Amino acid sequence: MTLAGYRSVHGAPATRPSLLLRIRDRQDCRAWAEFVEIYTPLVYRYCRKHGLQDVDAADVAQEVLLGVARSAPQFEYDQRIGSFRGWLLTIVRRRLGEFFSARQRQPQASGNSAVQRILDGEPDKHEEAQWDIDFQRRLFDWAAQRVRNEFEAPTWQAFWQTAVEALPAKAVAERLGMTLGAVYVAKSRVISRLRLCIQEACDE
């Protein structure tokens, strides 16, 4: 899906305060389930991009989420200070740096010193931008998985082919045997539902 397509679903990327407030309550199992579903794959992919093997990336992702769980009750969301995703990126980078440092101390270890040097510094604008894009994509995938079965196949395909695959609406209408108007209506219906799904998890 194009970046414009992701933004058409949920607008400018922003972590919504309601989910962050809810995870402060460790007894709110639904909030934590949503948080884990959204963020674990995001952290895992970041670790894989920085050279970790599957098992190590999964372990680091789990440790990051446990760290968030310990810190969540004291976390104060203030978008004027900075986004939650920015704070999370700092935690991920710190934990990943600790992983490489520990591996360097092991006998016959061959840690990636170049990655270590990068993690020791501050994330640059490109890295932060990529992190936000990855978040948008993860949030879209998560919402799409949740709402997919609520729509008939032609409706979903009309949305998917126009919004995700960026095909011309006229070509999609011909392919699916729908009118052009029906394609636009289908796309609008699915996008509205996706937005609602995201808001239910991440907005007040």
How would you characterize the overall build of this protein?
- This protein is an all-alpha fold and about 200 residues long.
- The protein folds into two domains: about 5-140, Rna Polymerase Sigma Factor, Chain: A (Orthogonal Bundle); about 150-204, Arc Repressor Mutant, subunit A, CATH 1.10.10.
- About 75% of the residues lie in helices and about 0% in strands.
- The chain has helices at about 5-10, 15-20, 30-50, 55-70, 85-105, 115-120, 125-145, 155-165, 170-175, 180-200.
- The protein is elongated.
- Mean pLDDT is about 80; it is low at about 10-15.
Low-confidence stretches at least 5 residues in length (pLDDT < 50)? 12-17
CATH superfamily of the largest domain: RNA polymerase sigma factor, region 2, helix turn helix motif
Quick one: how many beta strands?
0
Assigned CATH class of the largest domain? Mainly Alpha
Q: What is the element string, with H for helices and E for strands?
A: HHHHHHHHHH
Question: Please, how many domains?
Answer: 2
User: In angstroms, what is the radius of gyration?
Assistant: 20 Å
Helix-residue proportion: over 70%
CATH topology of the largest domain: Rna Polymerase Sigma Factor, Chain: A
Number of helices: 10
